[in-house]
Amino acid sequence: MNAAEAVNDALGALHARFADVRDGEQADYIPQLTRADPDDFGLALVSMDGHCYSAGEADTPFTVQSVSKPFVYALALSSVGLDEVDRWVGAEPSGEAFNAISLEAGTGRPANAMVNAGAIVTTALVPDTPESPAFDRILACLSRFAGRLLDVDEEVYASEAATGDRNRALAYLIRSTGTDYLDPVAAVDTYFRQCAVRVTAVDLAVMAATLAYGGVNPLTGETVVSAEVAAQVLSVMATCGMYNGSGEWLLRVGLPAKSGVSGGLIAAGPARFGLAAYSPPLDPAGTSVRGRAALGALSERYGLHLMRNPALPGSTVTLATTADVLPSAPAGRRERALRERVGIVAAQGALDFTAAERVLYALDESGAERTGSVVLDLREVTGVDSVALELLHAGLARLVADGRRAAVVDPGDRLGPSDLVRERTGRDLPRYGSREEAVERCAQALAGPG
């Protein structure tokens, strides 16, 4: 990948910016978590097209902990329906810490499925039969969200089971209110196991992207949950996923999110991307310090706030092919062979971060060979924001630096001066008024003199 490496560069810049942050403390109430390397720091982004980008220790395994909650909530919703889940677990922000005794007066119903009390009830709502035990269903569900088979860190599970008396107390307190379906021992043991499932930051980005994509895993194409369930989960994540800091997070970062005490953090941009971070040191609310800072900076820098209007999947790139298949291609064998080495990508509409990533990926995939040419047609583009402009210039500069000839059809001068291309490659970015002229010049350049 060449042009799309601009997205990796963006993640790499954030990683470098926050890698030396030394604030926060690792969770110590689960002793095994203290063995994690406090310097580990990984970032990952997965687009709706299944493109994966990462920086730092994005492939380092760690236990999912509370980041499992949205996905088990999705499983419960899929299994018994919203009305039944809502009967036992609310959907209101508690305004309290993750392990608070947050139960509705008179009913004992936990405030929401993102706090521990609600998560234990949610886990208990997953059907449990001898043929298909609840935890087997949970592990299979988490694996489908991740797009690969996950497993359990047995040492972390044992450590959590040995020290999890507060969660057991919550379960017994809920049972005492008349929640007769809940077996405190079984529910808490299953909950401990789901929290000890091993993932990486890349896994979490895929899982978040699956929710963002309406329940469809963008890597495997599998429908893991329905679009309705995915929307319900994202709604609760937006209002409750960051505990007593959920309002501040939504105001400033603007993305449904969920944190975990092992240092994992996910955020989802509906119809846009899944994001994840991993870094063990936590703030007082139990959220990764580096992860929170990096995802917040990413959202601010690239305009990812939920209330902004995203480019819809599939609406940006209208053509990605080679010039030999165009109706205007000449009939001669030599001319067509040259045009086969000229890739063409056409875009439309207003380009933001998400749209620019799609264009860059299409540029990378265009053309029959990496030594050929590529034409970017921007005639139908109505606007390019500053973020997309930066990414497009960086991506085009990479293409040229890696040996490909790039040309732009840009009669409206949407890209502006190509100073970055010139700075990195010593060459200008050719501009043309028509696609045919750009293709012809690129083919001539490939033919060489004579």
UniProtKB/TrEMBL annotation:
Keywords: Acetylation, Hydrolase. GO terms for molecular function: glutaminase activity. Pfam families: Glutaminase, STAS. InterPro entries: Beta-lactam/transpept-like, Glutaminase, STAS_dom, STAS_dom_sf. Substrate binds at S66, N116, E160, N167, Y191, Y243, V261. Its EC number is 3.5.1.2. Residues 344-392 form the STAS domain. It catalyses: L-glutamine + H2O = L-glutamate + NH4(+). It comes from the Bacteria. Belongs to the glutaminase family. Homotetramer. NCBIfam families: Gln_ase. This is Glutaminase. The lineage of its organism: Bacteria, Bacillati, Actinomycetota, Actinomycetes, Kitasatosporales.
